Automatic annotation (TrEMBL):
Protein family per UniProt: Belongs to the peptidase S8 family.
BP GO annotations: proteolysis
Entries under PANTHER family matching the protein: CEREVISIN-RELATED (PTHR43806:SF11), PEPTIDASE S8 (PTHR43806)
Name the UniProt record assigns to this protein: Type VII secretion-associated serine protease mycosin
Chain ranges passing through the membrane: 452-476
The keyword Heme is annotated on this UniProt entry: no
Top-level lineage group: Bacteria
Record InterPro entries: Peptidase_S8/S53_dom, Peptidase_S8/S53_dom_sf, Peptidase_S8_Asp-AS, Peptidase_S8_His-AS, Peptidase_S8_Ser-AS, Peptidase_S8_subtilisin-like, Peptidase_S8_subtilisin-rel, T7SS_pept_S8A_mycosin
Biased composition (Pro residues): 51-60
Taxonomic source organism: Actinokineospora bangkokensis
Amino acid sequence: MTGRRTGRRLGALLGAAAIAAALPAVPAAAQQAPATSAPSGKPTPVEAMAVPPPLEPGWPVPRATNQPDAAYELKTPCIAPAGQPFDLKNKPWGQNQMQFDDLHKFSRGAGVTVAVIDTGVAPHDYLTVRGGGDYVRTDEQNGLKDCDGHGTEVAGIIAAHPPENSDIGFVGIAPDAEILSIRQSSANYKGKRITPDNPDPQEDKAGTLETLAQSIVAAADQGAKVINMSVDSCRQVAINGVKLPIQASEKNLQAALRYAHDTKDVVLVASAGNYGTDTACTQGINTGDPSQPSHLILPPWFSEYVISVAAIQDNGDPADFSIPGPWVTVAAPGTRIISLDPTTRTGLVNLQIVDGKPQPIQGTSFAAPYVAGLAALIRSAKPELKAAQVAERIKTTAIHPAAPGGRDNRIGYGMINPMAALTAVIPSERGVRPDAALDMKADLPGPVVHNWLPMQVAVVGSAGGVLLLLLTLFIVHTVRRNKGRREVRGSA
């Protein structure tokens, strides 16, 4: 069996929704926080939020508890197999675009562990995966159960390895990499997160910024050299012109990312987020002043540590659903996705059910794993490079857009170029300083002022000559005519 299409029921999470990956649109504390004001009593103006403020000195790294933060119960049935299989032998367009066949001659990601912090990863014959923790339930296979299907599909794009002697075209970008699965979120499980400030909360889906921070620390401590986070939280920068304060949960996430990147040398990759999957992230946000975003997307906001990935369509245009922002780093294929079927051990999937209708799989959720897989290829081929150098290599070799500085808010530094990222010589890696900017003044000749005087003299002279010739002919003709008349009278 080479593949299966899933005409299956999906939870609210699976599919195009990187943002709907079970993180709240606005942290509860931010929703309840009063408007801040200046000492004068006037509202504090909205400040530029393109770059997050630094952490306070001594802010602790979150402790990985490997425990859910609530008693979550299954409220929506898990996805089910379609039942009717059919072959999926073709290669997805992104795989052809990025030349996997040639790419794998240089690296296949061997020896690199990629953590997938998501809805879990189901065991599959085409995947090397181990459990790394579960923040939804503690009694369900330590991260190796995927009720929503999202995490398995993400993992497949990174490291799927169908049998080499089969006629299956699909393969992961880093097929020899190992997947470490941490189930951090689920839209199908819900529970009440009781706190001292809120003893009777409403039921909410599993997954918060706190459990995301803990999952990052857990993955880093378990040896992951790359972490993929196709989960996002979206919140407004301000309400009625008053800036919302940074919450402790956001600072904990920032601390976890800093720990993984700086202390554990982990390459961190996150999806840029999708429009239309969250009430706070509707079409049109972050399209104004690039330095004044209206909404923050986390974890991409922490761009000092995170490679944020936008989605590209197969025609080369940015995907309409991909949320822009000053933190977007690069872009990768995010439409017409093929990956592993989370409901079978040997199947593939290319469709999802949205509002009861089958649709192609798409989203920045599935663009991010292409970049995470590319990072695994680089780390395998060039183990001497630090995480920051891997990120710089991916940015430097991307196909830059025609924008100032080779970057814009839609696709960052552009579509990734895996072959260049894997094989290019980067001067900074060899201690060569970047070329200094030169003040090159344009020493161009002045405008040519044409001297029309000779032409004018020639034209006037020619005209005068012609006029003189005509006058001469006229006189000659007149003389001859008069002479003829006199000769006629004389003969008479």
